[in-house]
Design a protein that fits this description.
The chain has a single domain (about 30-150), classed as Arc Repressor Mutant, subunit A, CATH 1.10.10.10. The protein is built from 6 helices and 4 strands. By secondary structure, the chain is mainly alpha-helical.
Length: about 150
C-alpha cells in the first residue's frame, strides 16, 4: 500500500478511536446512590487528591482545560459534596481546592476501578509486546505534536 494511503487510513482509524473514547468518557456513571458522575468529574477528583490543595489555575493546567472549565466542574462537585473550595491564606485572589471525605472515598474507588480496567485492557492487548506498546505511545505523542502545530 502506498505511504500516503496508509497515513490516511491511520488518521481515519485514529479519528474513529478518538470519537469512541469521547463517547466512553462522556457517559455518566453511577458512583453513589445519589450521583451520576462523568469521567471528567471523577478525573478532576483524582487530580485534586494527587495534589496538595491546588489552586484553580494549577488544576486547569494539570487537566489541560480552561480555568472556566475548572470553575464549573468545581461548582458541580462542591454541590455534590466531593470537594471544597477555600481562599488562599496568603493571596485572597486565589481559590484552592481540596477533597472532602466523600471525595477521598471516590478517588480511592476510581483508582481501583482504573486498575481493574487497565488489567482488562492489558488482556485485550496481550498480542502486543511492551516494546510495541512503547512504540504506540511514541506515535500518540508525535501525533499530538503534529496536530498541536496545526491549531
Amino acid at each position: 500500500m502506498d505511504r500516503l494511503k496508509l497515513i490516511q487510513e491511520l488518521l481515519c482509524a485514529n479519528s474513529q478511536t478518538a470519537a469512541m473514547t469521547m463517547r466512553y468518557l462522556g457517559k455518566a456513571r453511577k458512583y453513589s446512590e445519589n450521583d451520576d458522575l462523568y469521567m471528567s468529574e471523577v478525573h478532576f477528583v483524582v487530580e485534586v487528591g494527587a495534589m496538595v490543595t491546588p489552586t484553580m489555575g494549577e488544576l486547569a493546567q494539570r487537566l489541560n482545560v480552561t480555568q472556566g472549565a475548572v470553575t464549573q466542574t468545581a461548582a458541580r462537585l462542591e454541590k455534590k459534596g466531593y470537594i471544597f473550595r477555600m481562599k488562599d491564606a496568603f493571596d485572597k485572589r486565589m481559590t484552592r481546592i481540596g477533597l472532602t471525605e466523600q471525595g477521598m472515598l471516590l478517588r480511592e474507588a476510581h483508582i481501583s476501578y482504573d486498575h481493574a480496567a487497565y488489567s482488562s485492557i492489558s488482556e485485550d492487548l496481550k498480542e502486543f509486546s511492551d516494546e510495541d506498546l512503547e512504540l504506540f505511545l511514541r506515535y500518540e505523542k508525535i501525533m499530538e505534536e503534529v496536530f498541536r502545530k496545526r491549531i
